[in-house]
Design goal:
Length: 414
């Protein structure tokens, strides 16, 4: 059970406080309710670009990392389809350094052509290294538009094309900032050696004067139900053929999301799971294979992928995957298997709650979803799932018409 207090400033900033006197550190987590799904189709990658710009200096502070390091802290950030999350962990005695830095970059970034050009080059290089010049790196550039046709999940967080980053103008960047990065579009969580009174004082002092902004209203297109199986084959300079498959699943708050999460663990949660035992260890069709849920706020995906062994055709590998899924749909798993993955989730959640940063990030995320208290009910939601829930949901999800399949063919094997 993660205990917390909640208050809100007049400018709309939501604040959660989790007091933990067992540590001398405090995590300051600020989650902005903006991700790649909030971008325009011709200007993708902006949320990720801002992750970099936010470390490039604000109006009054030239460097973010140096002051953090000087007081014995650490900081970082990440961007997803749905959120942009910034955090700093530092000693409680030096807490105001974190408030000073975070408040100033929420107030106003250093909008300059030089700063933009520097970060554009960094992001473009990251795009090339991770997505274009790495074996299997372009998987998400292929899978997303195969699975999604109208929802902005159809492009990856880094952007649909390099040109969207290279062509970004300073006016576009500044407009995106003031439309999304605002106290009334953020949740701050403090976890660690801090009490509620001190938190209220510091938050009001450092963030109270930042004005509320006109946050762009989110109006996203709803992805239509997939009505037919989709297939794509590409050829790349990679060592082995690979198979990738996706299926649409409900949104993050739907009960069936939790069922889907357990399904993927039954399939690939370690070397005792079904995909590894059947297709890697026994039949030796794959060298590795895994399945996971995307975890998106809006309806997301189950993603399955694996490298195929030499001499095995992608058709044969695909058919073998289908047989494993068919067995699961027919409830051919034991109560012990289900209990094992449920226990794993419970232990992972409880272990994560021993870390102040994990607690700060989780509380912020669930507050963004609607109520941070939901964090304290995650375990019971997983443990309440029955074998019939697994079988019923598997039959609904693993329909052929709900599936998109990508054959990733190695050039030297064509």
């Amino acid at each position: 059970m993660v205990k917390f207090e909640r208050f809100q400033l007049s400018n709309g900033l939501k604040v959660l406080v989790n007091e933990d006197k067992s540590t001398s550190m405090v995590a300051i987590n600020i989650l902005y309710n903006v991700g790649s799904r909030d971008e325009q189709p011709d200007k993708t990658g902006f949320a990720h670009l801002f992750e970099h710009l936010m470390f490039g200096g604000s109006e009054n502070i030239g460097s973010y990392d140096t002051p953090v390091q000087m007081v014995g802290g650490e900081s970082n950030a990440f961007t997803s389809n749905d959120i942009t999350n910034y955090y700093v962990v530092l000693p409680s005695d030096n807490l105001e350094t974190g408030f000073w830095l975070e408040s100033d970059r929420m107030l106003k970034l250093n909008f300059s052509e030089q700063s933009l050009q520097v970060q554009q080059k960094v992001v473009i290089e990251e795009y090339r290294q991770r997505y274009l010049n790495q074996p299997y790196g372009d998987i998400w550039l292929l899978l997303r538009p195969l699975a999604y046709k109208v929802h902005p999940y159809r492009w990856p967080t880094i952007g649909e094309r390099i040109e969207h980053i290279s062509d970004a103008k300073l006016d576009d960047v500044e407009s995106f900032f003031y439309s999304h990065y605002a106290p009334n579009n953020a949740c701050m969580t403090l976890s660690g050696n801090i009490d509620l009174d001190r938190a209220k004082h510091l938050v009001q002092m450092w963030f109270g004067d930042i004005e509320k902004r006109d946050v762009k209203v989110r109006d996203l297109p709803v992805e239509p139900v997939q009505q037919e199986a989709r297939h794509q084959t590409v050829t790349r300079n990679v060592p082995y053929d690979a198979l990738y498959k996706t299926w649409h699943i409900p949104n993050r708050l739907d009960k069936k999301f939790y069922v889907c999460d357990l399904i993927t663990d039954l399939l690939s949660g370690g070397k005792s799971a079904r995909l590894y035992q059947d297709l890697v260890k026994e039949k030796k069709l794959f060298s590795d294979i895994s399945a996971f849920v995307s975890g998106d706020v809006d309806p997301g995906l189950i993603i399955l992928g694996g490298k195929v062994m030499q001499g095995v055709s992608l058709d044969e590998a695909n058919e073998a995957v289908g047989k494993v899924l068919h067995d699961l749909m027919n409830c051919s798993f034991t109560e012990r298997e289900l209990k094992k993955v449920q226990n794993k989730y419970e232990s992972n959640i409880l272990m994560g709650q021993t870390n102040v940063l994990n607690k700060a990030m989780d509380l912020s995320y669930f507050e963004m979803l609607g109520d941070a208290e939901m964090l304290n009910h995650e375990i019971e939601k997983y443990c309440a799932i029955t074998p019939s829930d697994i079988a019923q949901t598997a039959n609904e999800i693993f329909k052929e018409t709900n599936c998109s399949t990508l054959y990733y063919v190695a050039e030297n094997r064509t």
